[in-house]
Amino acid sequence: MSDNKYTDDRFIEDGSAVKKKVENEFTPVHYHPKKVKDNSWLAPVFLTILSAGVIGTVLGIFIINLFTGIENEQTGEDPSPSTAVTAQGTDNQVKAEQQLPTLAAYVLQAGLFEEKANAEEWQQSYMSAGEPAFIWERDGQYFLLIGISHTEEQAKQRAMELQGEGFDVFVKEWQTNEKELKLTEGASEWVEQLGQVWEEALTAKENTPLVNHLEQAPKADELGNLVEILSEQTENIEVYLLQVMQAYDNL
């Protein structure tokens, strides 16, 4: 062994020995990188929420369009009150030219006057004698009518009775003027039916058919006066029938 203390094996400056010594003296420290938080589970959740939102939006738009389409169809099939006119409501504001049916009967004419005052004077005379008398103005003249019948035979029979009582009367065929009138569909149908109802009332000499038909009357301005006359309850049926006939002729 050498006497030099610096020749101890522990201090031999040998590369491998030094390295070994250093390795023995230091405990290796291993680096552990910080774990990155795993957020991969968020992707499916976000995708699910997004899908639900898209589906909900599409479904909502579809439902809105569906109900809008149904409402439009109902609007097209069932006109609103602003586009229709009926007694129970309205049916159709579109007006078209309508040929009015002619109402016809046989009347007993008691006089023809140029002045209304003269007609009214004779009217009072007949009414005082218990005979219904009605003044009908036509073409600037005043006709004094004291009866109305469905057939000529009935009218002649009545005329003979009155003539036997001293009344100067004669039978005359009487009918409303032909004319066209702009009416809604509902009003046109009602007027068309009125012709038949009129025949029934005239034949039976009662107002029941006309009163029943009045309940179906449309609220049309063109028919205002006629509807008003129909609603009046005149004591004498023949005067009532003449009033209705005149109101119809004045449409």
TrEMBL record:
<dbReference type="GO" id="GO:0042834">
    <property type="term" value="F:peptidoglycan binding"/>
</dbReference>
<dbReference type="Pfam" id="PF05036">
    <property type="entry name" value="SPOR"/>
</dbReference>
<keyword id="KW-1133">Transmembrane helix</keyword>
<feature type="domain" description="SPOR">
    <location>
        <begin position="100"/>
        <end position="174"/>
    </location>
</feature>
<protein>
    <recommendedName>
        <fullName>SPOR domain-containing protein</fullName>
    </recommendedName>
</protein>
<keyword id="KW-0812">Transmembrane</keyword>
<dbReference type="InterPro" id="IPR007730">
    <property type="entry name" value="SPOR-like_dom"/>
</dbReference>
<feature type="transmembrane region" description="Helical">
    <location>
        <begin position="41"/>
        <end position="67"/>
    </location>
</feature>
<keyword id="KW-0472">Membrane</keyword>
<dbReference type="InterPro" id="IPR036680">
    <property type="entry name" value="SPOR-like_sf"/>
</dbReference>
